Amino acid sequence: MKVLYAVSEAKPFIAAGGLGDVAGSLPAALRRRLIGCRVVLPLYEGIPQKYKDEMHFITHITVPVSWRRQYCGIFEAKYNGVIYYFIDNQYYFKRQGIYGHYDDAERFAFFSRAVLEMLPAIDFKPDIINCNDWQTALVPVYYSKYYAWREGFENIKTVFTIHNIQYQGQYGHEVLGDVAGFAEEDAPLLENDGCINFMKGAIECANMVTTVSPSYANEILDPWYAHGLDHILNERRWKLHGILNGIDTVANDPATDPNLPANFSAEDPANKAVCKEALQKEMGLPVAPDVPLVGIVSRLVSHKGLDLVKCVLEEFLTTENVQMVVLGSGDWQYETFFSDMAARYPDRLAVRLGFVPALASRIYGGSDIFLMPSKSEPCGLSQMFALRYGSVPVVRATGGLRDSIQDSGNNEGNGFVFEDYNAHDMLHALRRAIHGYQDKEGWAILRRRAMECDNSWGKSANEYIKLYKALLKG
Ligand code: GLC
Questions:
Q1: Counting atoms of ligand 1 from 1, which one is nearest the CA of 378?
Q2: How many CA atoms lie within 13 A of 2 on its CB side?
Q3: Which atom of ligand 1 sits closest to the CA of residue 166?
Q4: The domain containing residue 164 runs over which residues?
Q5: How far is the CA of 62 from the centre of ligand 1 (A)?
Q6: Is the alpha carbon torsion for 45, 48, 50, 55 positive or negative?
Q7: How far is the C-alpha of 103 from the C-alpha of 236, rounded, in Å?
Q8: What would the pLDDT profile of 182-213 be if each residue is shown by its tens digit?
Q9: Residue whose C-alpha is closest to residue 215's, from 87, 40, 376, 335
Q10: Same structural domain for residues 208 and 310?
């Protein structure tokens, strides 16, 4: 079986979020299970030169973008045993930042079309094309409209994976013809709520739709989570599946992570205390080995549940003997809120605004408790990193958080879970965690259980393979 994984970001080349982690690790896991899997992504300006130096040019073609044709170079590189193809067009991709340009609809329509147009030029005819999020959502639409019956393109099945339903690629009607190159009669495939919606098109046209946890697959049938796509998902429910993501447990291992001041493991966690002390120093907090340290590593946007934190943070910091570190960037209102609170409670709260992967590792490694109270969370990877680094998660039961964290109230479990999106319920769960931390022996047992959770790709990669096989059997 051959799978082409089409995606707008992939580690280690370039990543803006969890999608890049998945695209950097699932393909290798599939290959380890003898599934031929290759990846295709745009050749962005921001890819570090050392990776560009390892790429080699295969050929160039032209790709239709509505009524015009655009240059498309195809490069190839091998990483971790996986072949990556890079789509080159400097007009579209030689820019700062990977998303957020005025012509993103055109950039990713071009990329999606290039994924199909390149197939005759590479020595790889996929059985499955697995696309991801709105940026590659037009692949199944183009395939079903223009390629399915073309020589050399027969019998390809398309899978569309939703990593976050909030970002759908919604545009005005003019995008349909002038940018995406569809005819007026194709409009119903892509229209939703009066807009052209790339994700809607993929849900219509892909042979299978997956999302990144079983709970999220249920949640997005509900208008509260679906951002306007619940009707179409309910109609197409038979092709929707949820598979929990895994993480790269080799690249993210506290026993070898070079970003940590000292390494540790579930069997030998002693150096976690060294990491905690170093983190307290680095963040300018008092060194206090016995004060529970709560970490947050998050984009500072509302669906991460920061309204709950905003509501009770002061109460938490003034009624508990606790410290907290926050790393992230995002909406102005949360950035200023956390900065102001850190200025008012400098011995309790330290904040760094930005995206600093090495510091993120040190927070996973140095904190005791990891807070992730998301309003919605398709899968979430941070709670899995936190588990592995022995920072016990406090989470709201939603999406992948519900599927990966079980409450430890019954002396099983690996964290602390609250159900309702309510600030005092979160505070109560945090207090249960702090209370648990006071019991040194009990905490060591809980922490070990957390660290021993297996979130590697094994099980999930097997589930993808099962779905792919079912699809190919027809
Ligand atoms: C998106 C989701 C996140 C998920 C990631 C990888 O970033 O918001 O929950 O873990 O994609 O699938």
A1: 9
A2: 10
A3: 8
A4: 2-246+458-473
A5: 33
A6: negative
A7: 30
A8: 999 999 999 999 999 999 999 999 999 999 99
A9: 376
A10: no
- Number of C-alpha atoms within 13 angstroms, CB side, residue 217? 20
How do residues 124-174 score in pLDDT, each as one tens digit?
999 999 999 999 999 999 999 999 999 999 999 999 999 999 999 999 999
Same domain, 237 and 277: no
pLDDT class of 123 with cuts at 50, 70, 90: confident
Give the Cα separation of 60 and 22 in Å (integer): 28
If you measure from the C-alpha of residue 69 to the centroid of ligand 1, how many angstroms do you get, rounded to a whole number?
34
CA pair distance 382, 53, nearest whole angstrom: 31
What is d(CA 406, CA 399) in angstroms, rounded to the nearest whole number? Answer: 13
Tell me, using a 6 A CB cutoff, whether residue 9 lines ligand 1.
Answer: no
| Cβ of 379 less than 6 Å from ligand 1 | yes
Task: Return the CATH number at 64.
Answer: 3.40.50.2000
The finding on whether 22 has its CB within 6 A of some atom of ligand 1 is: yes
* Mutational test site, ligand 1, from 161, 163, 211, 213, max ligand atoms within 8 Å of CB: 163
127 and 44 assigned to the same domain: yes
The encoded tokens of residue 304 equal: 């991460």
Same domain, yes or no, for 359 and 401? yes
Ligand 1 near 163 CB (within 6 A): yes
Nearest to 305 by CA among 328, 278, 280: 328
Pocket flag, ligand 1, residue 15 (CB < 6 Å) = no
Is 414 exposed, middle or buried (CB count within 10 Å of its CB: 0-12, 13-18, 19+)?
Answer: buried
Residue 85 pLDDT exceeds 90: yes
